[in-house]
Write the structure tokens for this entry.
Amino acid sequence: MASDAARIAALRDELECRILAEIANTRVNGAAPRVPGTLNVSFMGIDSASLVELLDEQGVCAAGGSACSSHEGEPSHVLVAMGLPSERTQSALRFSLSNETTQDDIDYTVGVLKACSEQLQPFALLDLSNF
């Protein structure tokens, strides 16, 4: 299990680094230590529900809320409790990785995520000054 956790954490870290490097206006939510298989990122000016829908159409699974309430359409209560501004909680996505996640999955996810976020970015109407 320890080797799986280390491999999953390495994939999560690569996903995080590539999202931050390749997709404009992104912020990671949370800090170490954290679970190896989760990553929460905000996409400035993009509604998470719209991004989740586009990703789903391309076979990429992500959620906008917390794991225990993602079906409710509300922002993560954890992000709210952390004091993040609504602009950031409303644009947050949670990615979950498992022992079945591969490097190809990371590559595909980043490519699809970049295309989908670029597609939605022109429609961003939020006040982003507090992001």
